[in-house]
Amino acid sequence: MPVRSLGSGFAADGFGPGFGVVAGSLGPGFGVVAGRFGLGVVAGSLGPGFGVVAGRLGLGVVAGSLGPGFGVVAGRLGPGVVAGSLGPGFGVVAGRLGPGVVAGSLGMAQVAAADGPRRGRAAAMVSKERAGAGSAEEPTDQLALRRANLTRTLRHIRINGPRSRAAIAAATGLHKATVSSLVDELLTRRLVREIGAEHSGGAGRPGRGIALSPDVGAVGIEINVDYLAVHGSDLTGRTVIEKRISFDAMHRDVERCLDDLTEAARRSLAELVRRGVTPVGLTVAVPGLVDVARGVVVLAPNLGWRDVPVATRLAHGLAPGLWIGVDNDANLAALAEYTWGVAAGTDDLVYLTGEVGVGGGVIVNGRLLRGADGFSGEVGHLPVEPGGTPCGCGRVGCWETKVGLAELVRRATPDAAYGLLDGPIPDPQERIAEVSRRLSAGDRAATEAVAEVGRWLGHGGAILVNLFNPRVIVLGGYFAELADHLIPSAQANLARLAVASTAARCHFVASHLGFTAAARGGAGVVVERMIEDPTAVSLSAPPPLASVH
Ligand SMILES: [Zn+2]
Question: Which of 133, 214, 222, 308 has a CA between 20 and 30 Å from the CA of residue 118?
Answer without folding.
Answer: 133
